[in-house]
Every structure is written in C-alpha cells, then in structure tokens.
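Researcher: I'm preparing a figure for a lab meeting and need a structural model of a single chain. I don't have an experimental structure, so a prediction will have to do for now. The sequence is pasted below. Please return the structure as tokens so I can convert it later.
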Amino acid sequence: MRRLLERQRAGELSTWHVRAVAETVGVWERTVWRWLEQAKTTGQLEAPVRQGYAVSDEVWASLGEVGGNVLS
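Model: Understood. Here is the structure written out token by token.
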C-alpha cells in the first residue's frame, strides 16, 4: 500500500499498477482500490487480514435438519 499511495500522491498511479498488485496478492482489482482508500483514510498500510468462514457443528446440524447439502 505504501508504494501505491506514493504513486497516487505523485499522480503516477494507474490501473496497471493496481492490477499487478491484485494479481500478485490474489484478489480483485476493486479490493486493492478499496484497500488503497482505507489506507488513505486510516493510515493503515498493511492489507487487511482475510478471514475465512468456518461452518460450526451447530450450522451443520441445522443444514441436516432442513435437508440442505454442503460439500466439506
């Protein structure tokens, strides 16, 4: 984020830069633009930690009761 912010402040930031970062990190371009905006407003230069979703035993049981199916 630091380098992207530097390029943006210098008026040199392009979609190509954002696309390269997105491909490297494995996220969508829009996500990098959002991170960049957050970095400008909050000062947080590290990309947010991506947290996954885990299905709890309670949710598994509920799905089983209603006849839902889920790949594990």
